[in-house]
Design a protein that fits this description.
Number of strands: 15
Largest sheet: 7 strands, mixed
Mean pLDDT: 92
CATH topology of the domain at 6-13 and 68-110 and 234-448: Rossmann fold
Strand order of the largest sheet: 1-4-5-15-10-11-14
CATH class of the domain at 6-13 and 68-110 and 234-448: Alpha Beta
Structural class: alpha/beta
CATH architecture of the domain at 6-13 and 68-110 and 234-448: 3-Layer(aba) Sandwich
Number of helices: 19
Oligomer: single chain
Radius of gyration: 20 Å
Length: 458
């Protein structure tokens, strides 16, 4: 009998709670600081931006946080997501490795982002919020929060990084289909947007700039809160449904991972697959957990660990994170979801504790691996997800060289159906690689030299 390819959980096995790794860390990460005073922030400081229920999740030390039934009902539109055994990729690589991937592209928005968009919209609606302001890079988050806002009858304004606004018109149309208002960032709709446009009329934009615009929008309107698709603790918390399901599905397959891999920009999809396995590692399991980032925006592998603003305008809290500096302007690579100057404080902390590893790869090498995956497994991956595939292929080839049959699990964070311009660029030979020069890193880091220092004990 042929070996099984898909491992599907019944809806009755949808997780009933999110996993909060803060309860199990050997040491907590340093606290975020107020952007004005430099003092640790409290719930009241975040209240202008987030509903109190999300703020409480952000600071919670509780191991499991119950998923509201209204959220689980929405999750059932696409969750549990399938786990696949990549038989054909294994055969193409002639590797003894067993490769599994958790596929998040089956969501309405085609990525993992609705896992947090839905609960964020739910909690905002429950507290009487009428409107959400947010940013998006590649468009996965923007389309996800547009979808979730429509589910809960909220208005939605999306500031979309200009390079992605131009490169990905169908993601923009997707947001508009779900009723969101979308503008290219930097825009004329905010003070910080107008300032940057005046100084840099040809700016391609960045997630840092778009975050500043969305934060300003939310902070200046009583009916509006801000929604963030990555970086913060509550966002990664919501994403843990990925890893929790994967543990059950791997058990169905009679397998357990030696290596867990996810691409990482701000940390949400990586955190979703990785955090439940970090718990297993802390409990004694021998697992390598690898975060994969673009060589053009190498926050973990080449950035510094410091307090930095989460946005370009300095409106968001100071976060302890691996960063390239809040004024860093990434190259216009096609993996728009990975073009963020900083890394999730939680992921940064795990890296500092040596609980996870990090790699950086150029985009052509990633697309090469993504093409092999598409031609064997049939799914055209999003540009971001090709980074996880690159690391997986390399690990599988290492198994071949060593004659070792390790089990590899990676998160396929989304499909590339709206990213075909990127694939056209690669297939036509026009795509170029960009590795960040040291001088550019040093220039960007000079902007944070005067900010508060992370305690040495962190």
């Amino acid at each position: 009998m042929a070996e099984q390819t898909k491992f599907l959980l019944d809806e009755s096995r949808l997780p009933e709670a999110w996993y909060n790794i803060m309860a199990d860390l050997p040491a907590p990460p340093p606290p975020p600081l107020h952007p004005g005073t430099g003092q640790p922030i409290g719930p009241a400081d975040l209240a202008p931006l987030f509903p109190m229920s999300l703020i409480m999740q952000e600071v919670s030390g509780e191991r499991f946080i119950a998923i509201p039934e209204e959220v689980r009902a929405a999750y059932r539109l696409w969750r549990p997501t399938p786990l696949y055994r990549a038989h054909r990729l294994e055969q193409a690589l002639d590797t003894p490795a067993r490769i599994f991937y958790k596929y998040e592209g089956v969501s309405p928005a085609g990525s993992h982002k609705p896992n947090t968009a839905v609960p964020q919209a739910y909690y905002n609606k429950a507290e009487g919020v009428k409107r959400i302001a947010t940013e998006t890079g590649a468009g996965q988050w923007g389309s996800s929060i547009a979808f979730a806002a429509k589910l809960f009858d909220l208005e939605c304004k999306v500031y979309m990084v200009r390079i992605s606004y131009d490169q990905k018109p169908y993601r923009r149309a997707m947001m508009q289909t779900w009723g969101a208002s979308v503008v290219a960032s930097p825009s004329e709709d905010t003070q910080i947007g107008r300032k940057i446009r005046a100084e840099q009329p040809d700016s391609l934009g960045s997630l840092g700039i778009a975050i500043s615009e969305a934060v300003e929008d939310a902070a200046t309107r009583d009916d509006t809160k801000y929604a963030l698709g990555s970086v913060l603790n509550h966002v990664l918390l919501h994403q843990t449904v990925i890893g929790l399901e994967a543990i059950d599905q791997l058990d169905m397959a009679g397998a357990y991972p030696d290596v867990v891999i996810g691409c990482t920009g701000g940390g949400s999809n990586f955190g979703g697959i990785a955090l439940p396995f970090v718990r297993e590692k802390l409990a004694g399991k021998n697992i390598r957990i690898i975060a994969v980032e673009p060589a053009a925006c190498p926050t973990l592998t080449r950035g510094v660990y410091a307090y930095d603003f989460g946005d370009t305008g300095g409106l968001a809290p100071l976060m302890p994170m691996h960063t390239l500096g809040h004024n860093f302007m990434p190259a216009g690579i096609h993996s728009g979801g990975l073009r963020y100057h900083g890394m999730s404080p939680l992921v940064s902390h795990l890296y500092n504790l040596k609980l996870i590893e990090a790699q950086a790869h150029t985009q052509r090498a990633c697309f090469e691996a993504g093409l092999q995956f598409a031609q064997t497994e049939g799914i055209i991956p999003a540009p971001e997800a090709t980074h996880a595939i690159r690391a997986t292929v390399d690990e599988a080839l290492r198994c071949k060289e060593e004659g070792t049959a390790r089990t590899i699990l990676f998160n396929l964070s989304g499909h590339g159906h709206f990213d075909m311009a990127a694939w056209d660029s690669y297939l036509s030979g026009e795509m170029v690689d960009y590795e960040l020069p040291d001088a550019e890193i040093q220039r960007a880091l000079s902007d944070i030299a005067l900010l508060p220092k992370v305690p040495v004990t962190a």
